[in-house]
Structures are given as structure tokens and as C-alpha cells.
């Protein structure tokens, strides 16, 4: 089944699919802890690139643009975390506790769209199957190419996905060997992300770090 926009092409949907390990039938283990924060950051990036929120003096602000009907429940819920009448710090947008249920919410949207199937198993984690792996492989190749080749040739959406995968250590997209020797390209991707989505990457890194920090005892 091809991936169609606003059904499985919102950035959180794409990030989820990029994190899928087809041989294991589950998502990448290394990025499990911060995945909720990264999915929320992908949702915020979707809202920014759709012109619904923007940076103003270092804070997230609603632009007042009309909300598309096909935005999707998860992205729409993240939009609701930015009050229409009050700017909010980027980190605060990501720390509305939505990260706790983000993976389940995105997974259920993809399953409802028929993009994935979820096989429930007793006493073991569910297996996830992608209905049509071809488009996901193509997306993964383009995202990888952004960090390995010419980052200037990547779209802003591919840049967002590449940077979030790098910051989240998503090993289904990049292993450390993939990025070895490509530091200038990675730096260029981060710089572009920061130019076009100011404040968001720093907030995403901070939110992801909170998920990786052991709970105090």
C-alpha cells in the first residue's frame, strides 16, 4: 500500500516507519526511551512546516492559519498544546506528557490507515508488519543520503527526519559507521534545521535527554 500524505506521510508517521526493524517486527531498541519525545518533535516540525506554528522570540506561537482537515489526531493534539493566546517555550510544548502515549497514538493511526498491522501476542511484545515496505525503504534511503551525500539536496522534511534520527540514535536509520566521516554533512543538516525551525532541535535534544535520564531514587 503506498504511503499517502496525511494518512502516513505526516512526519511522526514517517519517523515511526523509519524506526521499524522489518526483520525483528518491532521498532528500534536503541531509541525506545526517547521515542515519544522524538515523535512529539516530529509533530511540532509538521506543524511548523505546515505554517501552523512559528518561532517568535524563542517561543512557539500559533500563526492563526486554518487547520487542515487531514492533519491527523496526534499532530492536532500537539497543536492543542500551543495555546492560541499565549506563546510557549519549545521545550514546554514537548514536555506536556504527550510523549508518554505518542508511540501508541502514532502506531494506532498507521494501523487504522492500513499502513501497518499489529500482531498481538500473549506474554510477548506485539509484532509490527509494514504492509508495503518499498516506500519505507525509499524514504530511508533518501534520509540516509541526506547525511552521507549532499545535505543541500534534501527536502526540509528529509532534513527533519535525518536530524531527529541522528539526535535520537535511531539505529534502523543510522549506525555510527554510517555517520563516520560525514561530520560536515551532519553539521550542515543541523544548521539547516536550526535556521528553518529555530528552537526546536535544542528542545528535542533536551526532551530526549530527559527520557534517557534514570529516575532519581
UniProtKB/TrEMBL annotation:
Keywords, in A-Z order: Golgi apparatus, Lipid-binding, Membrane
Subcellular location: Golgi apparatus membrane
InterPro entries xrefs: GPP34-like, GPP34-like_sf
First-listed, main subcellular location of the protein, grouped into a coarse class: Golgi
Membrane-topology annotation of the record: Peripheral membrane protein
Record keyword Membrane present: yes
Pfam families for this protein: GPP34
UniProt keyword Nucleotide-binding, yes or no: no
Top-level taxon: Bacteria
Record protein name field: GPP34 family phosphoprotein
Lineage summary: Bacteria, Bacillati, Actinomycetota, Actinomycetes, Micromonosporales
Amino acid at each position: 500500500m503506498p504511503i499517502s500524505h496525511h494518512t502516513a506521510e505526516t512526519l511522526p508517521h514517517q519517523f515511526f516507519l523509519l524506526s521499524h526493524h522489518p526483520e525483528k517486527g518491532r521498532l528500534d531498541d536503541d531509541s525506545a526511551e526517547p521515542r515519544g519525545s522524538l515523535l512529539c518533535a516530529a509533530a511540532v516540525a509538521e506543524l511548523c512546516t505546515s505554517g501552523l506554528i512559528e518561532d517568535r522570540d524563542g517561543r512557539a506561537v500559533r500563526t492563526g492559519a486554518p487547520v487542515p482537515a487531514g492533519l491527523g489526531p496526534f499532530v492536532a493534539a500537539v497543536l492543542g498544546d500551543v495555546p492560541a493566546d499565549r506563546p510557549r517555550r519549545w521545550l514546554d510544548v514537548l514536555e506536556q506528557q504527550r510523549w508518554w502515549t505518542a508511540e501508541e497514538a502514532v502506531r494506532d493511526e498507521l494501523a487504522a490507515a492500513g499502513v501497518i498491522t499489529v500482531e498481538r501476542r500473549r506474554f510477548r511484545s506485539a509484532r509490527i508488519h509494514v504492509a508495503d515496505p518499498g516506500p519505507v525503504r525509499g524514504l530511508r534511503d533518501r534520509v540516509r543520503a541526506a547525511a552521507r551525500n549532499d545535505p543541500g539536496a534534501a527536502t526540509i522534511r528529509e532534513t527533519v527526519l535525518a536530524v531527529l534520527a541522528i539526535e535520537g540514535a535511531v539505529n534502523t536509520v543510522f549506525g555510527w559507521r554510517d555517520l563516520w566521516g560525514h561530520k560536515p554533512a551532519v553539521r550542515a543538516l543541523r544548521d539547516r534545521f536550526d535556521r528553518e525551525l529555530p528552537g526546536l532541535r535544542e528542545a528535542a535534544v533536551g526532551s530526549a535527554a530527559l527520557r534517557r535520564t534514570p529516575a532519581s531514587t
